[in-house]
Amino acid sequence: MSVLTDCLESVYRVGQRWSYQTRPQEHASILVVVRVDRHPVLGVIVHVSVTGLSIRNPSATSGIAEEVAHLPFSEAAIDGSVTGLLEENPILPDFLEGYMQWRNAFDRGKAGVFQISVAEAIDRLENSLNT
């Protein structure tokens, strides 16, 4: 049984679209809050989808991935990344498959959350796809 519960106390709400401190080549990128959980030790976990990216990805047809459907972050990491709330829109990107893969691994102690900025996480993801 998971120790994660829905979190309603965070400033971050499902459906919010935020600007954030992007990588230099991705000024138009935004993040969308797709879920907010609470963990008894880790605190608030903010799950986001990120669009407007330019990630080198040899598995992508074009060689470039323009979005990441699911990334889990600590609330502090999101606090340090976002620059402004753009809108609140209840229509969410398709994130559930990625979330469920993460959740299954997390519940088994095989996954965690990013404690770094969104831009740094995107850099690490790109590096892992290309090594």
Question: Can you walk me through this structure?
Answer:
By secondary structure, this protein is α+β, with helices and mostly antiparallel strands. The protein has one domain. The chain is 22% helix and 37% strand. The chain contains 3 helices and 6 strands; from the N terminus they run βββββαβαα. Strands 1, 2, 3, 4, 5 and 6 form a 6-stranded antiparallel β-sheet that branches. Strand 4 (43-56) and strand 5 (64-74) form a beta hairpin. The longest helix is centred in the C-terminal third of the chain and has 12 residues, at 96-107. It is globular and about 40 Å long. The N and C termini lie far apart (35 Å). 28% of the residues are buried.
Return Rg in Å. 14 Å
Please indicate the count of domains: 1
Tally of DSSP helical segments: 3
Helix amount: 10-25%
Helical/strand content category:
alpha+beta
How large is the share of residues in beta strands?
A: 35-45%
Number of strands: 6
Sheet of most strands: 6 strands, antiparallel
Ends apart, CA distance between termini: 35 Å
In short:
The chain is α+β, with helices and mostly antiparallel strands and 131 residues long. It has three helices and six strands, in the order βββββαβαα.
Keywords:
22% helix, alpha+beta, 6-stranded antiparallel sheet, 131 residues
